[in-house]
Amino acid sequence: MKFYIFFLYIFCLLSTNSFAEIYSYTDKNGITHFTDNMANIPEEYRKKFKTSAEIKSQKYETENTKKFDKKVKVENQKNQEIQEKDNDSEKKVEKINKKKKNTLTYNEKIKLEAWKMAKRFTLDYLKNPGSAKFPENSYNIKEARSYEWEITSYVDAHNDYGAFKRVYFKIKLSKEYNGGTWYLEDFKSWD
To answer: Is 118 helix (H, G, I), strand (E, B) or coil?
Structure first.
């Protein structure tokens, strides 16, 4: 029995931690020094020394901060990737919508071309063509016959006296079959 108690006593002595305080300080050259005696710390560094408990907590905080920063960085990267995917999706949708808007049928293209030509021919009949303002959407285009269109609309322009006057017009245009030249067939205007 005495043998067991002696063995237990030796075991306890060997397994106990040393409770001596450890101090650290960093000198002006940036070198960190460790000591177990506070008297070994120079006077100029005694206000800035750290104990072993502070060193351990700083190490723990530093490790946790690094882990947290890494998690935040990973989350930020994931969020950025999601945002970039959303932006790419939005851009793709915008491209598709633009293509749909820019894709006109042949008949729509011809009508727009007829409207542009009607404005050009109408300018020849105005006193002051530089002041002409045509409506953007207030015009009527109908196909009279194959390759012939009638356009009814109005134009605001200065008259002989410099006042703006609205002139209504009806114009008949034709286009060559092979797609080249536009011709003015008829022009009527009224106030």
So the answer is: helix
* Predicted local confidence at residue 150, as pLDDT: 94
Domains annotated for the chain, with CATH where assigned, are: 22-103 (no CATH), 106-190 (3.10.450)
Neighbours of 153 (CB within 10 A): 20
C-alpha to C-alpha distance for 114 and 124, rounded to whole angstroms: 16
Question: How far apart are the C-alpha atoms of 91 and 102, rounded to whole Å?
Answer: 16
Task: Tell me the C-alpha distance between 70 and 120, whole Å.
Answer: 67
C-alpha–C-alpha distance, residues 4 and 118, integer Å = 117
Q: Confidence class of residue 154 from pLDDT cuts 50, 70 and 90?
A: very high
Please, which residues bridge with residue 170 across strands?
A: 152, 188
Entry pTM: 0.47
Contacts of 38 (CB under 8 A, 6+ apart): 23, 46, 49
